[in-house]
Design brief:
This protein is mainly alpha-helical. It has helices spanning 2-30, 37-46, 58-63, 66-69, 74-89, 96-101, 109-127. The structure holds heme C (HEC). The site of heme C (HEC) has 21 residues, from helix 3 and helix 5.
Length: 129
């Protein structure tokens, strides 16, 4: 009975599609921003001291906190990544005053490129989920 077999196959493939859609959803819920080693090194050196939960500077950690980024909804994460790009492109972060006191916190042209490329990649990753 080919009709029956075709029907069964259709039903099975339907289940399969459902199952893969479901597992796709699971993956997206667990997807978090990834920090490759070279990105982490730059952030640790130039950003993290102000933008972490234990920072003494309330203004910096309230505006943006790397420790809390993964707990935010994708849309918010995308927003923050966009702000990172803007601040870096405008040479607003790290703040000038901070660089005057900590010369090694300054971002080189290559550091900026690495951070901006990373933020763009993570944005794409979050948008595809
Ligand atoms: C000396 C402390 C300090 C350092 C270092 C620092 N920031 Fe900031 N950052 C602040 C403060 C204070 C604010 C809030 C005021 C403002 O927006 O200018 C801020 C704001 C921001 C914002 C804006 C968040 C929003 O939603 O408006 C982003 C994004 C940001 N910083 C990213 C970075 C990145 C990326 C680095 C490293 C390249 C960095 N910061 C280094 C102090 C710092």
């Amino acid at each position: 009975m080919p009709g029956f077999i075709a029907g069964a196959l259709l039903f099975l493939s339907f289940l399969f599609v459902q199952a893969s859609m479901f597992s796709g959803q699971n993956v997206s819920e667990e997807d978090v921003i990834v920090y490759p080693e070279e990105v982490k090194t730059i952030i640790d050196r130039s950003c993290y001291s102000c933008h972490n939960s234990k920072s003494k500077g309330v203004k910096g950690k309230t505006a943006f906190n790397f420790d809390k980024l993964d707990k935010k909804k994708s849309l918010k994460q995308i927003g923050k990544l966009g702000k990172i790009i803007k601040k870096i492109e405008a040479d607003k972060m790290p703040p000038k005053k901070h660089i005057e006191e900590n010369a090694d916190a300054a971002l080189s042209a290559n550091d900026k490129k690495i951070l901006i490329d990373w933020a763009n990649d993570q944005t794409k990753m979050l948008m595809n989920n």
